[in-house]
Design a protein that fits this description.
globular, 487 residues, mainly alpha
């Protein structure tokens, strides 16, 4: 199991590294071609599509990864039932979106864009060809094959959206690129991936899966509300311009930190699911993954906050300068959110307790919705500060529920990453002082590099962190050397 987890983590990390190199390049190019309004429109459209995807998936992917089956035949039967149910739900929801496209567009503040919403909805049947099969690959720790799938998905927008944006197709370039990525992924998985899906259906299995997925789908709805409620409120009270400023910088932060988080979280869920009946190994596995994420994302968040103005001007250009505060505050809050609340949610899912995650989301929404509603009517900056600070409440709620269902205390959670918090704050003070000396771009880049070196030099003072860094480097070098010898 340890070898499987480590190997899966390597391939997952490689996948996310490539994704986080290609996706930012695509977004940077598009941000310099398109106005913020285009990204605001796309964010509003995605609000409905992600909700439809979440409903149609019905939690079956999580079921395939988390559940223990008696044999391979039973696994294949459940996979087939999940696939066909998922496909039918997605097709039906797409039809409903087409029929209700104009009222839905009006609710989103996109009057006259109902056809755009209907076209975006065509991604749902395409998604049916990938969702369950991705779950199958995650369950078997086959992240090497997922690399190929992910690469198709992330390169298509670069190849499609950018040329269309240059031709003046505005937000349609984003829509077509998004659809092309999912379509190419579905075709690849249909023709070139081993197919475990059978022409089989069983209502008894479906009832069993729905029994598990009932809380999972409720949990997914609560997560969707947490992620998108602020988008709806901001889109209602502010123009698409500000919605674009609000969403794009946070997407950049999520992309940057996702190099680590997106690589580790799927592996963590699979690993914890396999160790759910062994409390000792379960706890050790969680702390190991938490420490790995914290070591990287905490200094990353502090650094992005310190250099927020430079990063926004570099990536998006001066027309996006108002969004610097969004990037800085979201990065700083995400640096704590990712290694705590986000990972704790995976504990609840791996334990088969999605209802716990649901109540965590509800308790967060009770605070989040009023805060965003009130501050969205005051000013853009006050909204950003309030939205970032309220994430602390979500962390507190998750910590309390975690202590209730497991022997892991809030003190253990923070003590496991406290060193990285302290070292990152020291690094941040160093970076702020150094960058204040001179404002030239070359000097700013130099101080950013110095900050990174300063942080890792501080890490090397501690044996446990030194062993982690040396072990990672040795693993990568050793793997390359073995490949050369095999050639």
């Amino acid at each position: 199991m340890d070898k499987k987890v480590i190997n899966a983590a390597k391939w997952s990390l490689l996948t996310e590294l490539l994704a986080k190199l290609i996706v930012p390049v695509t977004n940077i190019i598009l941000a310099h071609i398109l106005a913020p309004e285009a990204f605001g429109i796309m964010a509003s459209l995605m609000m409905i599509i992600t909700f439809a995807q979440m409903l149609s998936d019905t939690g079956f992917q999580k079921y395939i990864v988390q559940h223990e089956f008696t044999d391979v035949e039973e696994l294949h039967k459940h996979e087939s039932v999940a696939f066909w149910t998922n496909f039918c739900f997605q097709f039906i929801i797409w039809i409903l979106i087409i029929l209700a496209r104009d009222p839905l567009a009006n609710v989103l503040g996109l009057r006259g864009m109902g056809n755009s919403l209907a076209v975006m909805g065509s991604i749902l049947p395409l998604y049916a060809f990938t969702s369950i099969q991705i779950g199958i690959l995650q369950r078997s720790f086959n992240f090497k094959k997922l690399l190929r799938v992910r690469m198709i998905n992330i390169t298509m927008p670069l190849l499609i959206s950018v040329p269309l944006a240059i031709l003046g197709m505005d937000y349609w370039s984003l829509i077509i690129g998004f659809l092309s990525a999912q379509g190419a992924t579905a075709l690849f998985m249909f023709f070139f991936m081993p197919n475990e899906i059978q022409l089989y259906f069983n209502f008894k299995i479906l009832r069993q899966m729905i029994g598990f997925s009932g809380w999972s789908i409720i949990e997914s709805i609560s997560i969707w509300l947490t992620v998108w409620c602020d988008t709806f409120i901001v889109g209602t009270f502010l123009a698409s311009y500000y919605l674009g400023l609000y969403k794009m910088p946070s997407a950049v932060v999520n992309t940057a930190m996702g190099v680590i988080a997106s690589a580790i979280v799927p592996v963590l869920f699979s690993a914890l699911s396999r160790e759910q009946n062994d409390p000792t190994r379960f706890k050790l596995t969680f702390f190991s993954f938490q420490k790995t994420i914290g070591l990287i994302v905490i200094p990353m968040g502090v650094g992005m906050f310190v250099y927020r103005d430079f990063i926004v001007n570099l990536i998006f250009g001066k027309q996006w300068s108002e969004s610097a505060i969004v990037l800085g505050c979201w990065a700083l809050s995400s640096a704590i959110m990712l290694p705590t609340a986000n990972l704790i949610s995976e504990v609840f899912r791996a334990k088969g307790m999605p209802r716990i995650s649901f109540w965590c989301q509800i308790l967060h929404l009770v605070v989040l919705v009023p805060v965003v509603y009130v501050f969205a009517q005051k000013s853009f900056d006050s909204l950003i500060y309030a939205r970032s600070l309220v994430r602390g409440e979500a962390i507190l709620v998750d910590l309390l529920f975690l202590y209730y269902v497991t022997p892991i205390s809030p003190f253990e959670i923070f003590s496991n990453i406290m060193r990285y918090i302290i070292l990152s704050l020291i690094m941040g003070v160093f970076g702020y002082a150094a960058s204040s000396i001179y404002s030239a771009s070359g000097w700013t880049v130099a101080t950013m590099i110095l900050c990174a070196l300063f942080y890792f030099m501080l890490l090397l003072l501690f044996k446990s962190d030194r062993d982690i860094i040396i072990g990672c480097v040795t693993s990568v070098i050793g793997k390359r050397s073995s490949r050369k010898r095999s050639r």
